[in-house]
Amino acid sequence: MTAAVDLRQVTKSFGAHRVLDDIDLELAEGTVTVVLGPSGSGKSTLLRTINHLEKIDRGQVRVGGTLIGYRQVGDKLHELSEREVLRQRSRIGFVFQSFNLFPHLTALENVVEAPTSAQGRDRADVATEALALLARVGLADKAGAYPRQLSGGQQQRVAIARALALQPDVILFDEPTSALDPELVGEVLAVIKELARDGVTLVVVTHEIGFAREVADTVVFLDEGRVVEQGPPSRVIDHPTEERTRAFLERVL
């Protein structure tokens, strides 16, 4: 079976600082992977390499078996044009911590925009699907609302519906609850849990250890740009074998 996400020897530096150091990860289709680690460990950069928002210095990233950001000719890699990258990116949902909704568009228009502009799909068809997606995330009555009229939790749920509208191979979540007031965290995590139950392939960077324990198939602990430990939450969270993992969990639990 082709892995949903496959990273091989992925390395990325900013100046002299190596942010990702020879990362190998293979994530199965229909699974939930939660990435944990201290601030500055490379978690967000790792996510951003999967959809080529960050270009890697070395290695390869594949999503659904397709090489991301490059075309391989023999043993040489040639970078794709921006248009080709955008086409690839339209198969990879991304939910940012700061929502990133268009403020001048309604909730419905925010969900409709990417499938029509990036994928060239029929607007009327997409609008019908978008209404169903807003209902799926509990916002059927907010289709005509603008972002400023929504709570942070509601805005993030619109962002999730927007990612789903692309019918992506995988959805990446970059700390989706970190910008929310504590009482709004649960409503967003509930939507992500529902996606997990539906078999959507998810990669989630988060500090929510309880969520990771409950929902993740695989937990990846990242520190100083390296995968220190990975496995089911019952092992990585409850019985970590590495001292760095134990020290991190003692600080956050």
Mean pLDDT, all residues? 95
Strands side by side in the biggest sheet: 8-9-10-3-11-12
Helix content: 25-40%
Question: What is the H/E order?
Answer: EEEHEEEEHEHHHEHEHEEHH
Shape: globular
Structural class by sheet pairing and helices: alpha/beta
Counted beta strands: 12
Residue windows where pLDDT falls under 50 for at least 5 positions: none
Q: What is the CA–CA distance across the termini?
A: 36 Å
Radius of gyration: 18 Å
Portion of residues in beta strands equals: 25-35%
Figure out the total of helices: 9
Characterize the main sheet: 6 strands, mixed
Task: Write structural notes for this entry.
- The chain is 37% helix and 26% strand.
- With 253 residues, the chain is an alpha/beta fold.
- It has a six-stranded mixed beta sheet with strand order 8-9-10-3-11-12, with helices on both faces. Strands 2-1-4-5 form a four-stranded antiparallel beta sheet, with helices on one face. Strands 6-7 form a two-stranded antiparallel ribbon.
- A hairpin with a 2-residue loop joins strand 4 (58-63) and strand 5.
- It is globular, with a radius of gyration of 18 Å.
- The model has no long low-confidence stretch (mean pLDDT 95).
Strand-helix topology:
Layout lengths: L4 E10 L2 E11 L4 E5 L6 H8 L7 E6 L2 E2 L2 E4 L2 E4 L2 H8 L2 E4 L11 H13 L3 H14 L15 H14 L4 E5 L7 H16 L4 E4 L3 H7 L2 E6 L2 E6 L1 H4 L6 H10 L1
Parallel strand pairs: 3-10, 3-11, 8-9, 9-10
Antiparallel strand pairs: 1-2, 1-4, 4-5, 6-7, 11-12
Helix pairs in contact: 3-4, 3-5, 4-5, 5-6
